[in-house]
Amino acid sequence: MASEAHPLTSSAAVPPWLWFWIPLFLFALPGYVELATQDFAAALDPPFGGSIARLLLILLAVLGVLPPVILLAGIAGTFAPGWRARSIERRYRLVDPPQNYPSAALSEVIEFLHHWSPGTPVKVCLTDVRKLAVVYPTSFRKMTVGVFGGLLLLWRRDRAAGEAVLLHELAHLRQGEVLFVHAGSPLVWGVQKLPWIVTAVVILQFVVGVMLPVSIFWMEWQEMAASLHAQAEAASLPPEMIDALQVPFSSFLSEKAAFFAHAQLPALALGAVTMVSWAAAAWVAFVAAIWCLEFNADRFAVCARPSALSIWLADDPSGQRPWWRKLDDLVTHPPLSLRRLLLRHAEDRVGLLALLLVFPAAYLVRLVLLIVWGVAVSFSVELDPSVGSWTRTYFTSGANVFAFTALVLLLWPFLAGHWESFVAGVRGYTSPRFFPVYWASAAATLAIAALGWIIA
Ligand SMILES: [Zn+2]
Prior knowledge:
mainly alpha, Zincin-like, 2 domains, 3-stranded mixed sheet, 3 strands, disordered N terminus, binds zinc ion
């Protein structure tokens, strides 16, 4: 049986960033609300144009609040774990394990799970041989493991690989973030759908932005043709001559195209940059936090079952999925090549350092995206789009976040065990040889904070 002589590596080698990021996001909400209020006020009383401009500005204001609203709805949805559990069990046809299952594999799997995580409820769907296992919350404090037929097949073929998969899922239970992420999570759904919604909005913006001037040109052209007709009739010119005098709409349009390309396209492109950078800034930190959970769980599994997980990761389980599914999957699971790379370095210091720096790096990317957003917004309202002043604004406001992140990294080797025993009643082990790695990552993060304080 799988009893371990040495204590297991902590399943929370990287701090649970979602617990950190979600309060930060909620803390930033008043800022989002203020911005949205300004946008709506400006949209209701547009400085130019008529009702069409107002409609467009209102549409853009609504779209601007979408990223925070989607993420907020996702967070709110995590407060209904019972509902989520019921919908997952219905969708995956998960039921209580059968009593007299003919193969020993199922009882071995359950025994293994209960060895590592006593009392964790197990549900099964043995007819689904494509899936392996899922974790989901049944209530705020109780998490369930769902086991599929695919895991039993893997278990019989290569037990160590099967154990590695289960250890990966158990690591998720011990990380304490099942409430927010994993199977059936409304937050993950929101983070997955955000890029699609933003893409649709940008396309819509371009379509409206092109159609609107073209329809205005069409009206202009018709007016011109009508007045030409009236003048020609007044001068009693023959109809063939009127037709010859009239400019065709296509050449009228191509004349206008130069103006359009000059005035309208940059505005549209700027609108797209604004929208994409704003949504991406909200998106990137969530995805980084979710990726950290996966790297973390891989690390936990591979330390307990060296090489087994990499064998399993070697055959790409997502190979058959269509590309848009794979894009969605990318939110919940980092690319396999990256997972394999980090697995190879699971036991060394550089691997851990890279893991610890994923979230601060994502936060840095977020700041860059916000600076891009700020500059684009300044451009579109014809203010001085000073990169320097936007950099100062965001680095100053981000400095305290980096400082707090550095503090968490500094203390994490001492806190990880407490966190795990609080969440799961068991605690992993953080080897003292890794302590300097935490401190190095804290120092790097603090350096960014210091940069913010200096340029403030
Ligand atoms: Zn996972």
